[in-house]
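Following up on my earlier thread - several people asked me to post the actual chain instead of describing it. Fair enough. Here it is, all 271 residues.
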Amino acid sequence: MWIDTHCHLDAAEFGGAQAALSGAAAQEGVALIVIPAIAAFNFARVAELARQYPNCVYALGVHPLLTPQAEEHELEILQQAIEAALGDPRFVAIGEIGLDYFVPELKQGALRDKQERYFVAQLKLARRYDLPVLLHVRRSQDIVLKYLRQHPAPGGIAHAFNGSFQQAERFIDVGFKLGFGGAMTFPRALQIRRLAADLPLDALVLETDAPDISPAWLHPAPNTPQQIPRIGGVLAQLRGIAPDAVARATAANAYAAMPRLAALMNVPSRN
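Reply from S.P.:
Thanks for posting it. Predicted structure:
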């Protein structure tokens, strides 16, 4: 069984093809697809998709790239949405949240301050409601780790991990799994492939970030959740183990990262 721990199934690029996409993924053995929100405008949509398709679940959060246009009451809306969703077994995490210093204007001044303030506020919500977080960490690994030390979250996933081995170890030390996906499938992505091969298997989860970060065989076409088994096959090759072993391990890691996901599937979680 495979799990896509990060897929923007509500994205405009998919039009109205969500039923076909979730069905195709299920046929490939993708038992679960985690759909993170990015801002208040799509909270209802990700929840609707998760309730509509049996292999979908969702997270709620404000993405760092959406913080510049976020209004002050957006965090209030998020808290209200979280409280309303606590009784929904398909609600599994807070996300996508984090920091992005790749975009120059978000790296300095008032916009940097705002995205860091939103990140801290959402870490506090995660702690208050005992929920894991799905982290966006782009050119911001050390600062994200600093805030995680100051405001510890109940674990989660560092999505699309692309840091150093030392940074990876620090995320693992504070209880996080690391997400690997399409970037790992490119032969020239030497650092990511080394990390995927050498980090402890019990620290890794698989993701697509669909429709983004398409694997080598699909690029530049949009990514889809049905690519997870083939992406997992690349991880198996890099580690010299069987794909079935990768499927079992990464699914167990996803359950450990998101206990509500384990509860939904009646699987004992392990942290």
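The beta strands are 2-4, 30-36, 56-60, 91-100, 133-138, 156-159, 176-180, 204-206. That should answer part of your original question.
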